[in-house]
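Today's session is about reading a structure prediction critically. Students often jump straight to the picture, but the first step is always the sequence itself: look for stretches that repeat, for charged clusters, for runs of hydrophobic residues. Only then move on to the predicted structure, which in these notes is written as discrete structure tokens rather than atom positions. Here is the chain we will use throughout the hour.
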Amino acid sequence: MLFMPLTLVALTRVPDRDAGLASSLLNTGQQVGGSIGLALLGTVAWTVVANSIHAQVKAAAAAAAKAGQPVHPAAGGHLPSAIYDHALSVGFSRGFLVSAVIALLGFLVAVVMIRVTREDLAGAQDSMALVTTEAEAEPAEAM
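Below is the predicted structure for this chain, in token form.
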């Protein structure tokens, strides 16, 4: 929901001769930001998954030891699916929470930092209307 408005706002006050450069910088920033964001969210999610598994196995071992039962891994050395499912749920919930916080911060930065006046937008609309009328006039002159 923010890519197109951000693009329009980023290019509003850029002279026509620099529009290509500004657009490429914006696209590069979006690509690099997406890559870094995905790496960050993946790291958060899988770190929480690993910590959750470790904590659950440790708690299960402590509970078994307290009850006087022998502590041994599940059949085949695999984690019980309930522990793994819970860890995945907790990890990816945390990843989505972090992504929501990042989106909220991006929204707040956009609201506070980006200032476009009606006059700026009117100037953009006037130039678009000029381009449209010139494009419509050219085919009529060719006939």
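Discussion point for the tutorial: The helical segments are 3-10, 19-66, 81-113, 118-142.
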